Fold this sequence. Notes:
With 66 residues, the protein is mostly helical. The chain has 2 helices and no strands. The protein has a domain of 45 residues.
Amino acid sequence: MGNSHAKGWAEDRESVELDAIPAGQLRRLVREVIEQHVDDRQLERLRLIESAEREQLTMFGKGLKE
């Protein structure tokens, strides 16, 4: 028998250990698959909101240092 970690995995199905995939490539794969299911306009809006929040937190943090 092959990989003991793959118990119950059908032998006719392909598999790969995630740590065998370079981190950047794995991140791209995951992002692409997730983004297929997300509305592009909503995603862009969320990114803009997150950017604005980051800016506000940065400004707040600078204010605490003074």
